Amino acid sequence: MSIRRILICERESHLSQDFKERLQGRGYWVETASDVSSAMLLIKKQNIHLCLWAFSDTDSIEKMSEIRNERPTCVIIMVSGDSKPSSIVQYMRAGAVDFWDPNSNTEVLENLVESHLNRVIADEGQTGLSDFPLTEFVGRHPKMVEIFQLIMSIKDTDSNVLITGESGTGKEVVARAIHDLSPRKKLPWVAVNCGAIPATLLESELFGHMKGAFTGATQNRIGRFQLAANGTLFLDEISDLSPDLQAKILRAIQQRVYEPVGSAHSLYLNARVIAATNQNLEQAVKERKFREDLFYRLNVIPINLPPLRERKSDIPLLVKAFITKFSEQHKRQVSGISEESMRVLMQYQWPGNIRELENLIERVVILKREPGIIEIKDLPIQHFRSVSLDRYISSVSFPEGGLDLNEALNDFENELILQALRRTQGNKNKAANLLNLNRTTLVEKLKRKGLKIAV
Which of 6, 41, 232, 440 is 20 to 30 A (C-alpha) from 122? Predict the structure, then answer.
């Protein structure tokens, strides 16, 4: 195995000498550069595997694209205290593969370095090295990494894309990422929620109409297809289309022409089409609820987004991004989240996926008027309880002879107490707070019921 070479580029010392020595202790060759010109010279002379780039002015950010041209296999990790999503996207577009905030733990950066270098070494001598400009922005779960790889491979094409996944998984975010990374990024982005527009109005909304085409059409109207021009047209909840509209959209996609309602003149469809649905379209095709030919026209590039419960390792990253976003938006000074609160979020199943998590964090940030981190008392615990209660009740089965209500309620109470203790690592004060009990009452219940957990 060749020596893995790391170049640390920083004017000010964001990274401690101890951190650099730990990298060297792992067998890495570590060099430093205090200005852009020195960094570029080293990159040209040395086979640098990974670059920690802490030069954040506009000109220096643009230099990252030169590094990508000079050393295509070099992984660039942007080091900056500006962790706004828009800034991170700017870094990624310039050439960074990942991002690290110097205000966070250097162990996170060590793990980033190790992960990326292992990938570089594994891929040495091969073409088409992995390049994930949106990884830090969205998530790092293996399923998401596969999706990012796919996005990077299709971004320069005009192929139709079909994005599937449960509600709230981020289908529009992925569609927008494809647009923003494509050659069409400066051209129109037009999104249509097909399920939110009445069926009687949807055809006119999509294709436009001519004056007098129907009662109430008092003037010409440009449709979303025409507004998209040479950009990207995103059709969300495509499964809600009527059979008649499915046929018309199929013709537009297949022949690249369509007519506004009431017009005999065809218009050209030049936009890239990305569709999305939270339904199983293959099943809908089998049930003759969705046209098979339209399905295959849309499903050229399929992307299936996993629910949040299947990528829970991304929750801390998403929480951090949402705290930053909403603290700035609502002018709050929320700097993070406690370990105890994070455990509650990690144990929840998130039926509403990322949208539910985002809405919850926004609510908590708005209501937290004092500076600091999100504590367990800031979370709407009743929200988590009610879902757990619904799930518990729905799972109850009644035997022929009926059940003992007192015994069932006692079992449920025992389970809630044990769950509270597990979430708080056996801390009785915190568990009592979760259950809205006095500590003394909780201790008495534990003794009376003989309940214990292994911590």
Answer: 41
- Taken in order 444, 447, 453, 455, the sign of the CA dihedral is positive
Nearest alpha-carbon partner for 435 in 454, 455, 425, 421: 421
pLDDT, tens digit, for every residue of 75-92?
899 888 887 877 887 888
Q: Provide the β-strand partners of residue 232.
A: 189, 272
DSSP state string for 168-213: TS-HHHHHHHHHHTSTTTTS-EEEEETTTS-HHHHHHHHHEE-TTS
Structure confidence at residue 14 (pLDDT): 67
Q: Residue for token digits 């030049």?
A: 270
* Best CA proximity match to 325, nearest among 371, 372, 355, 361: 361
Domain spans in the chain, listed from the N-terminal domain onward: 5-131, 152-304, 310-449
CATH of domain 152-304: 3.40.50.300
Closest to 257 (Cα-Cα) out of 205, 188, 248 = 248
pLDDT digits (tens, 9 = 90+) for 384-404: 755 445 545 544 556 667 777
Tell me: pLDDT of 138 over 60: no
Tokens of 369: 């008027």
Contact predicate 351/321, CB 8 Å: no
Q: How many CA atoms lie within 13 A of 289 on its CB side?
A: 11
Query: Is residue 122 scored above 70 in pLDDT?
Result: no
In whole angstroms, how far apart are CA 125 and each of 2, 21, 121, 145?
12, 29, 9, 22
Q: What is the pLDDT of residues 21-56, one digit of tens each?
A: 788 777 778 888 889 998 998 888 888 889 999 888
b/e per residue, 210-245, with b = 16+ CB within 10 A? beebeeeeeeebebbbbebbebbbbbbbbbbbeeeb
Fold exhibited by the domain 310-449: Helicase, Ruva Protein; domain 3 (1.10.8)
152-304 matches 5-131 in CATH topology: yes
Over residues 299-352, the pLDDT tens digits come to 999 999 999 998 888 888 889 889 988 998 899 999 889 888 888 888 888 889
Q: According to CATH, what is the number of the domain 5-131?
A: 3.40.50.2300
Task: Judge whether 311 and 273 are in contact, CB under 8 Å.
Answer: no
CB within 8 A of 279, min separation 6: which ones? 239
The predicted structure's pLDDT at residue 420 = 82
What is the C-alpha separation between 11 and 122, in angstroms, rounded?
32
Hey, how many other C-beta atoms are within 10 angstroms of the C-beta on 11?
Answer: 14
Dihedral of alpha carbons 94, 100, 103, 106, sign: negative
